Amino acid sequence: MKPVSLIQFLIEERRAGRINAELSLLIEVVARACKRIAVATSKGALGGVLGNAGSDNVQGEAQKKLDVISNEILLEANAWGGHLAACASEEMEDPQPIPDMYPKGNHLLLFDPLDGSSNIDVNISVGTIFSVLRCPEHVTEPKVEDFLQPGTQQLAAGYVVYGPATLLVLTFGHGTHEFTLDREVGSFMLSRRDIRIPAETAEFAINMSNQRHWEAPMQRYVGELLAGKEGPRAKDFNMRWVASMVADVHRIVTRGGVFFYPLDAKIKAKGGKLRLMYEANPMAFIVEQAGGAATTGRERILEIQPAGLHQRVPVFLGSRAEVEVATRYHREADVAHA
Ligand code: AFP
Predict the structure, then answer these.
(1) Are 89 and 97 in contact (CB under 8 A)?
(2) Average pLDDT, whole number, for the chain?
(3) pLDDT value of position 92
(4) Which residue's C-alpha comes closest to atom 4 of ligand 1?
(5) From the CB of 245, is ligand 1 less than 6 Å away?
(6) Residue 44 zone, left/alpha/beta (φ > 0; ψ -120 to 50; rest)
């Protein structure tokens, strides 16, 4: 097969009428910014980029130096491109307008610049997650409410994993595709077209240390997985937990599996741990486009009407059959308690 670069892939998508020129340019700019983040992360201690920045983000979490650097790289790269009306970052309270000196476009970009950043200092994979929405018509200065569109409205979503290899996984709503960064050439090259996540799996990902705080249906579901062959599922399951969502999702996109960040008593007041707009929606779009499923345990993530830019939700995603079992247990428990 002849190698296909990201640029060639984007041109093909444009010719097929699946994306317009502005969206294609936007993805090119995001990909270029992510190459710069890949360079920064790969320097490790030699780049002087490890450790805390000494500040907190809007979520009240300690920012790593690389959180701040990655955020700046993405903001700067996207400001002048002319394809954005505004962008929003997990690291910033409010949307970032496009400076007046640059032309504006019709898209809204949302991103988590460096997901899993608490893993940076121990040299474990981290990543960037992004989501693209259309700016509502006639809006020239987008406000928070213009971003609050359900995930079904996403025009594109993707993530980049900075691991042993740097990979970009991308969807425009016509399948999910993977590109691997050829470091010598400096280009993302198509490495898997139309990825399919197997419906069945025997591998799950969850932070087990929260077990005692989970709701009853989650206790039941994971209890049954742990019971293995002798239990009601009559099958042994294996567990993996990287604690970088990009790496856990990428494993699922590669060989199947299921990922959970459920509601628990500690985080109930916040609504969940992961952010709807920066993590759950883009990952749900990518996973659904690869044949998987994504719910909060109760509803399809992509159908949630967002109430805030930094809203948090529970996340169940991956191999369809397992997401369905866990979601059914939650719905049955809700009916029983209604
Ligand atoms: P950080 O970006 O602060 O490291 O958080 C990563 C994350 O949002 C997500 O990538 C992981 O799946 C999840 O948190 C890990 O959470 P635990 O700390 O509970 O393992």
Answers:
(1) no
(2) 95
(3) 92
(4) 116
(5) yes
(6) left
